[in-house]
Design a protein that fits this description.
The protein is α/β, with parallel strands linked by helices. The chain contains 12 helices and 14 strands. Strand 1 and strand 2 form a beta hairpin.
Length: about 400
Amino acid sequence: MIIKPSVRSNFFTNAHPLGVQKMIKNYIKDVKNLEPFKGPKNVLIIGGSSGYGLASRISLAFGANAHTINVSFESQPKGSKTGSAGFWNNLFFQDEVKNLNTKHIDFNADAFLLETKQTILETIKKEFGQIDLLIYSLASGVRKNIDTGDMVRSSIKPLGSPAVGRTIDIKSMQVEPLTVEPATESETNDTVFVMGGGDWYDWVTFLEKNGALAQNFKTISYTYIGGKNTDAIYRSGTLGKAKEDLELKSEIMNKMLKEKYQGESLISSSKAIVSKASVFIPQMPIYVSYLFDEMLKNKTHETTLEHKHRLFKDMVYGNQRILDDLGRIRLDHMEMKEPIQNDIHELMHKDITPEFLKLEGTKLFIKEFYNINGFSVDGINEELDVDLEKLIENYKTNNYINLVTS
């Protein structure tokens, strides 16, 4: 099969396995050049197949010599369908860790289900006894309501008035206008249900009640706060309501964990990155492109892997925490410097010219958007035939467990 990028409405419907494999190798090569640190022993990651979750896993596995379990819901290859990038990330991660003296297990499963939690509990008890870190980095847009049986979907929308901005059409490589209408009350509540702190809280309390948490246990989830350039769609939108719920649940868990385990629950505000959702949010592709350009000029740009490695080495297990008034870790402090935000604000209120697509920041945004799906990866010939079945056969492992039945 010759695999070319398939983009529909700014969404990649496929992934290139060989490109994904090269990216995994690149990440691991990079982390080996970073300073190792003393961190957790046994880690559970909910949503560790891509983005911040994957970067966290690689940092902890190779930088702190930790055991890891990952739970993520991925599309597997079938017929002419390549499967998701996350599926291949998990498979090739398993190949890279096979010679380590640590244990790493992947579950392809719906993290929201009680049955999944029970299976993970049994695995923790069998393999590790207890865990001392749980990372919640799930980015699902849908969650089943167990009580009603309904599938609840999130809506990334503003509140009160429309969000008007621009995005980059990846297929045509043109800057296009994008307007998102405000959310209804029902859409807001649904977004909090799917993307708030409810499931994170369920995971921690379920494992706690069943004796799976070690002394000094920590749990952390990721948020994005942003500033005046992204406020309408983030903190002042449905996502903001979901993140408020996330922070509330963290406060509740922090009190319990401190009393019972001398542990803690943490919220970390990350820098803006390239994600699959980036192009669907008004102004975000423009903002992130300008941000990357400014931070490259200021020599403060970090890759997703470098960003998360610094989080765990310096702020979760180190003594260099930067906290705000609400106790959130501000790993985004370089992005949020006033001169950076002011410069971007000025740029975003100017007309977009053809020079915008030539900026180093814009080129990096577009390249990373392709790279996270395994495309446009340096050194990969996309004209070569790829045998998906043979790849899976060559890299299959008992440490990849599929719990998805349909």
